[in-house]
Amino acid sequence: MILPRRRRIHTFVLLLAFMAAHQIGLSQQRPEGGLMVLKGATLIDGTGGPPLPEAVIVIEGDKFKAVGGKGTTYPSDATVLDLSGKFVIPGFVDGHTHYRPWSAELYLNHGVTTIIFQGARNSNGIGEEAYRASQQSSVRTPRIYDHGGHWLTLSASMNREQLRLAVRDWLKTNPDSAQLPTLTKGGNKDVVPWPEVLGEGPSLAESNQQVIQWAAEEIHEAGLVTLGHTEDCLDSVRAGLDIIEHLWGCAQHLMTPQELEGFQKGEYLHWGSFLKGQTKIDQMIKEMVQLGAYINPTLVYVFAGFSPLAHKHELEAYNLYRDPALMTYYSQNLALGLLQKLRSVQQYSTKYPAQVAIKHLSDKDWQELKEAYRLHGAFVKRWVELGGKVMGGVDDPQTGTAGLSNHWEMAMLVESGLTPMQALQAQTLWNAEYLTARRKTPTKPMVGWVGPGTYADLVVLTANPLDNIENTKKIERVMKGGQFVRLGYTPYFTTGVTEAQQNKQILDYVISTGMFASVELHEALDRPSSSALGMMGPLVAVFPTPEPEISAIAPHTVAEGSPEFEMLVEGVGFVLDSVVQVDGVAVPTTFVNLRTLKAKIPANAVASAIPNRFTPAGASQRVGIYGDRTVRITVFNGPPDGGTSNSVSLRVMAKWLADEKKLVN
């Protein structure tokens, strides 16, 4: 089958771009088995030490062999690359991802060479083989670290010995860390599994804190860190939690019992409003830091739309989504949802939907939410001032644009009051310490910093990130395991294969038999969710626009000839932009709350009914399912996602029958 002409031209253009990028990538590699030397650049090694000008970085195999100043010696037969005027930083580490295999190129193109997957290896399409392959320099994915081959399952009913056996069985799956159950406040639940596709774990009530403590002791004995969500960060850290994901648990710890009850009922816009009371905050931070805790504030996930940089970030994401090669496999639906997220904010009251467009907020509410963001930033800054370390994680790919969001996270950390150096550490060494923080013998990780013996993962920048954190986006080269990564995107990208296999796959498709392809392959390439090339199915952003559903309307019956009237529509999935439709035509709609809409029904919609309610149904009689004429009432939510609800029928009763039944117009 010959591809359509437009398709052939589009594919040929992608091929030319791919081949050009491929040749550039080849020219950057050293001879097989030889040494490579990078010299002349200013090195910012990730440790927080002063930058090293005119650095010499010697690479052997997949590791750094030597790192020093311009006097550092190296063999005369080494391949030398002069990077004078450039800046070298460690490859970035994303400390909180829900990684999907198709996001690999996005991470690498933005300098993220290592990711910490918040899930087990048997989820999100990763698997043992891809996990192991990710450590290879030639495989086009970041290095993957995770919670093992399967979840560590705990229950409040376990005794100490049962828990010890469960942990030991789980350790056989070669985990890098453990996600502990969420410690909840104000509840009495035992184990409540969250959807595994989100990479989340179960929950335990605060009365079962002993179980978490026993589990943490066993995990720490194995030299691994624990991480997780919590509704009380201090109690969780006391029980053995090392890394706090998100900061709502710190805010809830500071709430009075009355405030906590009100928050759980949806009476407050944001938990960030409770991150105040400096004395209590300092006491809490000091104890948590002393116990060795890290925080992962996930600013892009929680506050992306709050930042003054949101519009700039939206434009950056929009320009990225215009890349034709990337969009052969990246979900259009997800892209639209993430762009919308940057024009909205996350809030927690029943007053608005969870994700609400900024344009719908009252001035008072917007100011209150901005103050919550300011207090959150002040907490993060104070954490670092008191000796704490921050992990930079962004919860991608369903809350932001994988890779690009890591640069936004650093910018928002600086916006919160951290220095550019501290923001870099949050995205490099502090993140990487996840791998070694609980080792019996103090050990530096193999990633996240540039030093002898560590993996040769680095990013070459054209401008100094310490002058302006935005300069982290000015990427000239990315290296993973001693090999420069080909920058750019591969049409119909397949993960888990080597660079050479990827090249052959694309070239075979485009060039073979003069751009001929089988019907099966042609159709597979036209399907965004194609499994033929190992891609994932369609995704939605976190807090997508829901599909509405109607449960009731009032009134449900009117007499023919009624004047314009107001209808209450009840149901679920309503948002501020929901529109009520009458027989498919939009009518003026007012959002009342998450479960109620008001709509003005025009008089012409109910102007006439059939003269006899027993007339057989038919197109000309316009008889509905009740024997009277009916009007279809639906609710529509716009994209991304969203859609049209079920329909509920408004009965239009003949006037003589309405009079007989004393139906009030």
Strand proportion, as a percent range, falls in 15-25%
How many helices does DSSP assign?
19
Q: What is the overall shape?
A: globular
Instruction: Extract low-pLDDT stretches.
Output: 1-9, 21-27, 187-201, 504-538
For the sheet with most strands, the description reads:
6 strands, mixed
Number of strands: 31
Average pLDDT taken over every residue: 84
End-to-end gap:
64 Å
Structural class, by secondary structure, is alpha/beta
Helix content: 25-40%
**Radius of gyration from the alpha-carbon trace, in angstroms:** 29 Å
Structural notes for this entry:
The protein is of the alpha/beta class and 665 residues long. The N terminus is likely disordered. Strands 23, 25, 26, 29, 30 and 31 form a six-stranded mixed beta sheet that branches.
Outline of the structure:
With 665 residues, this protein is an alpha/beta fold.
Keywords:
665 residues; alpha/beta; 6-stranded mixed β-sheet; 5-stranded mixed β-sheet; 31 strands; disordered N terminus
Would you spell out the secondary-structure blueprint of this structure?
Elements: H1 5-27, E1 35-39, E2 42-43, E3 56-60, E4 63-68, E5 79-82, E6 87-90, E7 92-97, H2 104-109, E8 112-117, H3 127-133, E9 143-145, H4 160-171, E10 177-179, E11 182-184, E12 203-205, H5 209-221, E13 225-228, H6 233-239, E14 243-245, H7 248-254, H8 257-264, H9 278-290, E15 294-296, H10 299-303, H11 310-320, H12 332-341, E16 344-346, E17 355-357, H13 363-385, E18 389-390, H14 404-416, H15 420-426, H16 429-432, E19 458-461, E20 475-480, E21 483-484, H17 499-511, H18 519-526, E22 549-554, E23 557-559, E24 565-572, E25 579-582, E26 585-586, E27 589-593, E28 596-601, E29 629-637, E30 643-644, E31 648-653, H19 655-660
Parallel strand pairs: 1-5, 2-6, 7-8, 8-9, 10-13, 11-12, 13-14, 14-15, 15-18, 23-31
Antiparallel strand pairs: 1-3, 3-4, 6-19, 16-17, 19-20, 20-21, 22-24, 24-28, 25-26, 25-29, 27-28, 29-30, 29-31
Helix pairs in contact: 1-17, 4-5, 5-6, 6-9, 14-15
